[in-house]
Amino acid sequence: MLALRLTEFAGPDALRLEEVDEPRAAGRVVVELDAAGVTYPDLLQSQGLYQVKRELPCVLGTEGAGTVREGPGFTPGQRVAVLASEGAWQQVVVADDDKVLPLPDNVPLTTAAALPVNYLTGHFALRRRAKVEPGETVLVHGAAGGVGVAALNLCRAWGLRAIAVVSDDRKAKVATAAGADHVVLVDGWLDAVREYTGRRGVDVVLDPVGGDRFTDSLRSLGPEGRVVVLGFTGGGIPTVKVNRLLLNNTSVLGAGWGEIVRQEPGYLRRQWDELYPLLADGRLQVTEPEARPLTEAGDALRALGERSVAGKIVLSLR
């Protein structure tokens, strides 16, 4: 089979397309992938900067979608999304059955390849960490990125009011299509949000960006508001002056979805059990990803690093 492997921690230039042996099943589920997702952690892994450093050579990618060849609990030919711990940028993967997620018939495989990481992260951040309630307002930074678009789609499915913060008009269109009720540009975003909310502020801020806008995220909160930290794609890791949290009884929460999945067996399946009916009946409308050939994976990673991507990129494997 074909696999795209990282040969050294030198970034996208170190990716090599190679013929390799198919992985062994050993009682696990074998999935023939049609497409695989591209995420920001893939870029960090390619540079050796991710918190978990893989042994080289290795296959990047953590998510994909395709059809089951064989495996306990699944029917051959069944359409699934999958979380592949040994890498998804290859044509065949094996996974434990709890990491293989059945798909409704109305979700195309290319679309499904964009689902697991970002949508389950968004679900975890909003439901479990922020504990969103009906009628609340959620502000999303990096709203045209993969996690941001997923969060906007989820807010729309759950009837939450969503404000998107983006860097340009092209990304504003992506955020609007994904479900944002209101879109503001990065320059002057805090004043725009205050005006839009009648100076009350927002209930939840989802922040995958970090950097120097974090303090203003705290200032944007209404009473008992919560900032949920998802990452630092902006490059800077901010600090919190905790006296700010006293003024409006606000909170700063971390959302490390991958760590919870490792710590709590069964949580991933419970998440999917909640999302599946939303997908099946169309309440959760997933924004279509941009599909690129596997040979353009390096370019996709570079685009993520330059923050020029709007929406989600997936790699076609067939």
From TrEMBL:
**Per its UniProt record, what InterPro entries does this chain match?**
ADH-like_C (IPR013149), ADH-like_N (IPR013154), ER (IPR020843), GroES-like_sf (IPR011032), NAD(P)-bd_dom_sf (IPR036291), Zn-ADH-like_protein (IPR051397)
Q: State what protein this is by name.
A: NADPH:quinone oxidoreductase family protein
Q: Which Gene3D superfamilies match?
A: Medium-chain alcohol dehydrogenases, catalytic domain, NAD(P)-binding Rossmann-like Domain
**A Pfam family the protein falls into:** ADH_N
Q: Name one GO molecular function term.
A: oxidoreductase activity
Question: Which residues are in the Enoyl reductase (ER) domain?
Answer: 11-315
